[in-house]
Amino acid sequence: MSEKIILLFHKMHGLGNDYVVIDESIEEIIPEDKKAEVVNALCTRGFSIGADGVIFVTPSNIADIKFRIFNSDGSEAEMCGNGIRCFGKYVYENDVLKQDKMSVETMGGIKELVLKVERNTVTSIRVDMGLASFKTQNVPMISDTEEFIDEEFKVDEEMIKLSAINVGNPHAIIFSENLEELHIEHLGPLIENNEAFPERTNVHFVRVNSNQEVEMITWERGAGLTLACGTGATSTVITGHRLGVLDKDVIVHLPGGQLQITVYEKDGKLGAFMEGEAVSVFEGITELEF
Question: Residue 19: is it exposed, middle or buried by C-beta count within 10 angstroms (0-12/13-18/19+)?
Fold first, then answer.
């Protein structure tokens, strides 16, 4: 027998990377075994709300609150930079967690958020994205090398320079001076689903304009071509800094807007702060049947 529920939701975006937010901080609304199916249905543009993914607000035993993020194809991701800023704005403005500093549990580790608030409205969020790893076993990436940084990678019978990094989730970074000439919608899925990446990967195509400014286009794992990617911007700047082509403070220009990334070093590893806005678009009600 099918079950029907009335779902309250919020629609939000970070630089055009848009999400449906579902509050399960008090009780579970979507059964765990139905989440992937419901997420896929809710994200289907033209037939439902439409989004790049769904965020669930849930309780945590190890942090102030827990963030779960599902891609539009129903797969759960470890972390999402734009999504976690939306999450922080939602929980503060909707009185779930009225703190301008909060620790947030994610599958990619605990993240520390600092919210800039004006007249009870969150205007920007700074996220400590944590330490990155270039170790191929941590990305994860199947490779004979311990790290895969600016190495030749075979795609569709061609060789491209690629760097692999994990900032809570996996990323492949490709620096190019000619973004317009790249067939991103062709290369993106080929790299995302390449057998070298057993958990698939996000793919970013980047042009360095100066040592303090880059442009980035993202093919997101499980979502496709998106307007922005916070973890991608973070991984891009950390990689560029490691390669010596970017400073510690870098503005990343994405199709949906820009992010400020600040690299730091701790225990011999590189990490970064990400800062940007999040926007509440609308709230609504929909009926679900499953």
Answer: buried
Query: In terms of domains, do 117 and 175 share one?
Result: no
Structural domain range at position 36: 4-129+277-289
Tell me, yes or no, whether 139 lies in a domain.
no
Total number of domains constituting the chain: 2
Tens of pLDDT along 237-278? Answer: 999 999 999 999 999 999 999 999 999 999 999 999 999 999
Whether the link from the prior residue into 31 is cis, omega within 30° of 0, is no
**pLDDT tens for each residue of 112-133:** 999 999 999 999 999 999 999 9
pLDDT bin (cut points 50, 70, 90) of residue 1 is low
Active-site residues, by number, are 80, 229
How far is Cα 204 from Cα 207, in angstroms, rounded to an integer?
10
Residue 247 is part of a domain; what is its CATH number? 3.10.310.10
